[in-house]
């Protein structure tokens, strides 16, 4: 059985950004903190920290830190913890949800001191962090739950293939010829982003030849408005640009609906249950 005093020492080093500050937070000497972490690593037979500046968790350390956070949540739900400020919720979400409807769902009045650590992955691959035990919940496009997990559908996010009017004129895309589409550069959020590929496959049975990689949801839209390329953008996020005529459809009437799902562990703490209900409520108000 793991000694939770040792886990708390490891967590303090990660959360405080170093051994000295961890010692101050735990009212221990720096040597005592180091000894507890060494004892934990000896018990497990492998390191839990990378001794960098600041220290970082190994893959095992991340899973243990996540586990400790779940224990803290359960204690808070049972009113056994006097430190709700210690709660850190680690979730993985897709960038387009984070830039549109999701932030409102993270405001939980029941837990005003709750802290979030949000990692961003493409909606097609975000579930891998949950499978690795790094996060407590995941928002992604996969409907298949992980072992020990459950999943609930949230709705669909609608994407449209958009570009600036000048871009369409420059590449003669209004003609609708597949050769013109293939020659025109497209915008891709990351190497996992395949929405543009799906669009071209649907309308012309081809693959893009030229891509710009832009890992910023807002930068993606600004680049399209500037005429750098075309891309698949969430209708929810680009309504002002559509109304102003800054962006127009490459293929009028075409849209691609991406389903979104909330993944959570079946052994759910009261904090995570509250978060899940908030996410579901926000999604039903924003998504199709």
TrEMBL record:
Keywords: DNA-binding, Transcription, Transcription regulation. Residues 2-58 form the HTH lysR-type domain. The keyword Transcription regulation applies. InterPro entries: ArgP, LTTR, LysR_HTH_N, LysR_subst-bd, WH-like_DNA-bd_sf, WH_DNA-bd_sf. It comes from the Bacteria. Pfam families: HTH_1, LysR_substrate. Coiled coil: none annotated. One of its GO terms (molecular function) is DNA-binding transcription factor activity. Signal peptide: none annotated. Belongs to the LysR transcriptional regulatory family. PANTHER family: HTH-TYPE TRANSCRIPTIONAL REGULATOR ARGP (PTHR30579:SF2), TRANSCRIPTIONAL REGULATOR (PTHR30579). This is Chromosome initiation inhibitor.
């Amino acid at each position: 059985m793991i000694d939770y005093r040792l886990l708390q020492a490891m967590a303090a080093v990660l959360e405080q950004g170093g051994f000295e500050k961890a010692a101050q937070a735990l009212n221990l000497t720096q040597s005592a903190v180091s000894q507890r972490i060494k004892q934990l690593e000896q018990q497990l037979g492998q390191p839990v920290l990378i001794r960098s500046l600041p220290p970082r968790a190994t893959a095992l350390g991340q899973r243990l830190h996540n586990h400790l956070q779940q224990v803290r949540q359960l204690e808070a739900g049972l009113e056994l913890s006097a430190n709700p400020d210690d709660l850190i919720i680690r979730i993985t979400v897709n960038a387009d949800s984070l830039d549109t409807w999701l932030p409102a769902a993270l405001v939980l009045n029941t837990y005003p001191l709750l802290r979030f650590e949000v990692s961003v992955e493409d909606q097609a691959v975000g579930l891998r962090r949950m499978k690795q035990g790094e996060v407590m919940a995941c928002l992604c496009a996969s409907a298949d739950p992980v072992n020990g997990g459950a999943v609930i559908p949230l709705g669909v996010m609608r994407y449209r293939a958009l570009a600036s009017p000048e871009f369409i004129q420059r590449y003669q895309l209004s003609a609708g010829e597949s050769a013109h589409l293939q020659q025109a550069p497209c915008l891709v959020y990351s190497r996992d982003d395949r929405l543009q590929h799906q669009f071209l496959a649907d309308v012309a049975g081809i693959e893009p030849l030229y891509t710009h990689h832009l890992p910023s949801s807002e930068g993606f839209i600004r680049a399209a408005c500037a005429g750098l390329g075309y891309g698949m953008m969430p209708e929810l996020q680009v309504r002002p640009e559509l109304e102003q005529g800054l962006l127009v459809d490459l293929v009028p009437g075409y849209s691609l609906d991406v389903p979104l799902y909330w993944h959570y562990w079946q052994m759910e703490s009261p904090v995570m249950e509250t978060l899940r209900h908030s996410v579901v409520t926000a999604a039903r108000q924003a998504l199709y």
